[in-house]
Amino acid sequence: MSWSAAQYVKFEAERTRPVWDLLARVPASGVRRAADIGCGPGNSTEVLRARCEGAEIVGIDSSPDMIAAARKRLPDVAFEVANVESWQGADFDVILANAVIQWIPDHEALLPALIARLAPGGALAVQTPDNLDEPSHRLMREVAAAGPWAKKLAEAAEARAVRQGADWYFRLLRRHAQRVEIWRTTYFHPLAGAPSIVEWVKGTGLRPFLDPLDAGEREAYLARYGAAITEAYPAEPDGTVLLPFPRLFFVAVR
Questions:
Q1: Dist. CA 178–CA 137, nearest whole Å
Q2: 0.90 cut: is pTM over it?
Q3: Which residue segment(s) compose the domain that 92 sits in?
Q4: What's the mean pLDDT in 15-26?
Q5: Calpha distance 160→152 (Å, rounded)
Q6: Over the stretch 205-232, which tens digit does the pLDDT of each residue have?
Q7: Of 21, 115, 190, 239, which one's alpha carbon is 20 to 30 angstroms from that of 109?
Q8: Could you tell me the CATH number of the domain that includes residue 157?
């Protein structure tokens, strides 16, 4: 799947706010080493570095474009292109996974493996979008299934991992952690019209639906999807639309 740092940071302020909220719940004193897995263009790493002042910070992401942007942004941080599943880092006081586990399968194996990479007393801090039932994402699937591209996009929705509820994550994590905190927040983002919603999801959720299409199909898909988004998110008199964005958070302390 292709990722674009430039597309992603079009909504950097909105994407970064949950990182601040998550890391505010993570003890930061005495942190020697911290990792940002799925670091993207480094916006979350920047927050991690500010929160864990003086700590050694590393960042990984599977996208070379994202890592190039992160290195440019934070040249003093060690970034590398790597998959979370095969990452071998260990003995961290904090591991941050911001908006990444939704792209990785088998959370029942993944999350205990990440906790095992913590030092005793270390914290795994996770934020993951919980928006598959929102119109922004439901319409991706409906447009995919109803168009001439249906066969090409038959498996696009499966790019995201199976979603579990907060209770499932709590039961899993408490078997491997001494303390678990879990919560869900819905952010309401005022955006400049329905086309801004399309631009937002072009950087993330739409990627599995756009990547398999040729240029003409992509343009037609986006036109149909954009029309549906305009109907689903009515604008205020000044053209502003409000995008609700639910996210699930948890902190597990080893």
A1: 35
A2: yes
A3: 5-253
A4: 95
A5: 17
A6: 999 999 999 999 999 999 999 999 999 9
A7: 21
A8: 3.40.50.150
